[in-house]
TrEMBL record:
InterPro entries per the UniProt record, alphabetical: AB_hydrolase_fold, FaeB/C/D
Keyword Hydrolase appears in the UniProt entry: yes
Gene Ontology MF: a single term: feruloyl esterase activity
PANTHER family referenced in this protein's UniProt entry, alphabetically: FERULOYL ESTERASE C-RELATED (PTHR38050:SF2), PTHR38050
Annotated GO biological process: xylan catabolic process
Record's subcellular location: Secreted
Parts forming coiled coils: none
Any GO CC annotation of this UniProt entry: extracellular region
Name by which UniProt lists this protein: Alpha/beta fold hydrolase
Predominant subcellular localization, coarse grouping: secreted
Amino acid sequence: MKYLLSLVLFCNFIVANEMNRIDMVFDNEPRHYLVFKPDNDSKPKNLVIGIHGYTGSATGFEKETTGGFNESAKKYNFIAVYPQGLYFYEDQYFGRFMRKNYVSSWNDLTASKTKTPTGETCAVDAVPYPKYSNCRGTDAGRCAWSSCGNDIGFLKKIIDDVKNNYDVENIYVLGVSNGGKIAHALACEFPKLLTGVMNVIGSPALGLACKPKGPINYIVYGGLKDDTVPPIDIVSWDKYFYTPIDTIANDWMSSFNCKEMKTFLYDEYDSIKETVYSSCNDGVKVTSILNMDRGHTYPGVNDDNSGYCKTNIQDEILINECRSNINIWGNDFLLERLLN
């Protein structure tokens, strides 16, 4: 047992030393992000921003959610940046005992809302979630479960800082779950700044999904068995409403007048259906991917329930230490599409 603990701590030490942490104050809140640059002679020209999900962390995304995203940065020679979502601790009481429950999220401008043009983002009997203090005095309402802060501005600040420090030509965003939602929002907001965006299991709230303001490559990925952010069925297990991925793909396809559609089926690892829309205005490509075998999880990892952890570079966060997670094929499958 002592050997295993030492091994975990040693691995976490290596991960921490591989990455630089940048702390800042943004909108009067302490914020930070992590940067990993491959140690090789070839200067990376691509930047990939990996965004964690609800109650996740920057290091949790790298080590557990994706099963070692830094290794992919080395393989594909890109700079990886991992932002940390705004977080707080909810007091949970169990009789006389109290536990600090870590909550982190991103405000994609849909998870922080209740009202939509056609109704609300959750059912009357939806499961309630902890509320951020920065949602007080806003129109967030009872369905809101994310921060109400300016996370889009925070991520734009990160991009500007990294561009000033590194000679990058292409900027990509890959977000998971709640991170996928804000990746979608960034694609709408900054098409001239970003080369491509991938939204993994992160459909926006029903009735609030934005549409692109300009040409940008976009990929949406869903798991057919996902009942947390369902890609087809709209209603989640906790009775929140989400936009079907076909609706998202059709919105983007229509926006860029895509004339060709091809469908591909894969079954080497999971059973996957991929629909690619091409011959679009401005050379845009839109892709919809549906994994028939998975639920609310990143593809290719052994441990589905992962990413809710930290390593010692984020030691101030009160959550469990990350464990090693192995990704056999998922990072390659997604990045080969995002980067090409």
